Amino acid sequence: QITLKESGPTLVKPTQTLTLTCTFSGFSLSTSGVGVGWIRQPPGKALEWLALVYWNDDERYSPSLNSRLTVTKDTSKNQVVLTMTNMDPVDTATYYCTHRGNYYASSIFGYYFDYWGQGTLVTVSS
Amino acid sequence: AIQMTQSPSSLSASVGDTVTITCRASQDIRNDLAWYQQKPGKAPRLLIYAASSLQGGVPSRFSGSGSGTDFTLTISSLQPEDFATYYCLQDYSYPLTFGGGTKVEIK
After folding, report:
1. Is the distance from CB of A29 to CB of A22 less than 8 angstroms?
2. Closest residue of chain B to A104, computed from CA coordinates
3. Which residue in A5, A49, A109 has the most chain B C-beta atoms within 10 A of its own C-beta, making it the best mutation to test that interface?
4. N or C: which end of chain A has fewer CB within 10 A?
5. A106 has pLDDT over 80
6. Tens digit of pLDDT for each residue in B59-86?
7. What per-residue confidence (pLDDT) applies to A104?
8. How far apart, in whole angstroms, are the C-alpha atoms of residue A11 and residue A75?
9. How far is CA A87 from CA A2, A18, A20, in A?
């Protein structure tokens, strides 16, 4: 059974750096084809993809936040850490980590976000 | 970045109705599209992937169709537990992008 859980501060001040940890079980990030993603959702607004890290250390970032984001994986601890610098009140959101699974159907290989953490609300305020 | 335009942004429907939600991509994304359901205070749940493949455990009243730029999520015989917000996600190229969401409310 795959589970993920986000942890980190609930309140950060503007200009500070946010560090969120995703601790997961039920899969390994050393398994080929697997990844962990981060997605956020401001209160009352739509989902926004932030970043991905794959089993092979491939990292992908949202261009609009690229310079502020870093994801690192610790395979031995089953953890992925998201770091976001220079936080602003507009970054107030629920942050989710997700399992990046893959499928092969009708000769097509693809990915999806099939398991999600419960999310953690991060408020940016002085 | 590929823009995903979802419509309508909200709709009212009754139990038993058939509901259709559409998502349009700003360029061809083949069938690399997923649909998610989100209830208040909860994480999104994967319903459909590869445009039309039903995720395990999802009721068969949910179906997806489309390819290229135009996609549809259909909920047949709407049930009380289906009142939620639905999002599409293009998984064709980075950055991955979501639609703006469709809130399905009780009429």
Report:
1. no
2. B50
3. A49
4. N
5. no
6. 999 999 999 999 999 999 999 999 999 9
7. 87
8. 28
9. 30, 7, 13
The amino acid present at A114, given as its one-letter code, is D
> How many angstroms separate the CA atoms of A7 and B78, rounded?
36
The distance of B69 to chain A (nearest Cα, Å) reads: 17
* pLDDT of A105 strictly over 80: no
Half-sphere exposure of B40 (CA within 13 A, CB side): 5
Which residues, listed in sequence order, are joined to residue B29 by a DSSP beta bridge?
none
Nearest CB partner across the interface for A108, out of B38, B50, B99: B50
- List, for chain B, all residue ranges whose pLDDT scores fall below the cut of 70: none
Partners of B88 on chain A (C-beta within 8 Å) are none
Q: How far is A47 from chain B (nearest CA, A)?
A: 6
Per residue in A58-102, pLDDT (tens digit) is: 999 999 998 999 999 999 999 999 999 999 999 999 999 999 999
Tell me how close the Cα of A122 comes to any Cα of chain B, in angstroms.
14
Q: Name residues 8-67 of chain A within 8 A of B (Cβ).
A: 46-49, 52, 60-64
* Secondary structure of residue B87 in the 3-state scheme: strand
